[in-house]
Amino acid sequence: MTPAEKEAVEAFRRDVVEPSMTKLVLIDFWAEWCGPCKALSPVIEKVAADYADKGVVLAKIDTDANQFIAAQFQIKSIPTVYAMFQGQLVADLTPARTESQLKKMLDQILAQLPIDSAEAQTEAEIEPLIAMGEQVLAEGDAERAVSIFDQVAEIAPDHPEVVSGRVRALIAAGRLDEAEAALAAVSGDATKGPELDRARAALDLARSAPPAADLAPLIAAAQANPDDLQARFDLANAQMAAGERDAAADSLLGIVAKDRDWNDGAARAQFLKLLEVVGLEDPWVSAQRRRLSAILFT
Hints:
With 298 residues, this protein is of the alpha+beta class. Strands 2-1-3-4 form a 4-stranded mixed sheet, with helices on both faces. Strand 3 and strand 4 form a beta hairpin. The longest helix has 21 residues.
């Protein structure tokens, strides 16, 4: 091995192998004369920057200046992009030529590796705080839950579970305009996913629900005329506003059983929104889904 080759190996060990002990290193083999390399370069650089907090770093290897290194990896065409973790190649990312393709492959890789990242550290820090906020909210102390989620939001303002928890706490506290503003402030990828869908559903339900009222007259109206489905629907909305989810589910399912197409399926839509607000992972939701299926398919 020549002195130049030894220097190249040492540089590769320092710039690629050592960082890969805790990070996912993207190795981009390229050359100045390579047109496809120039087309891919801004894409891979942007994705690497976007994923920096996830523990991804980019190492660019000029194959003309590093022929010995390229030969060790048997590079026969460029651009060639590999992913390395703990000194081992874990994926060939060369087929990915668009930002979405590259991100999809990275997401799959990162889900399987113990990458040391700022995002992972933040996740570990806020996870128990999110759980505390959700518990306090479930216990009915909405204002305290808002306070907890406000504090967590200072650490991770765009985290979907934090945004969702804060919005739902604001709704429970009757601060609907603030909840709507919090949802409107979310942008980019943070707007997607079941957590934000749950928060939006909660806001929709809160906006459609009547002010807190005595349920007795509504119950009496629904019982007086079982065929008055609007009366049952009004009762269900009032029950949801009062936090009586079991009673609300019973009222809505009673409408579906009577006439599943009533008011363009409004009762079924409201029922599904109720389940989304509670949280699709909740055992109560699974039980209610089975009740709905029994009505629809028997």
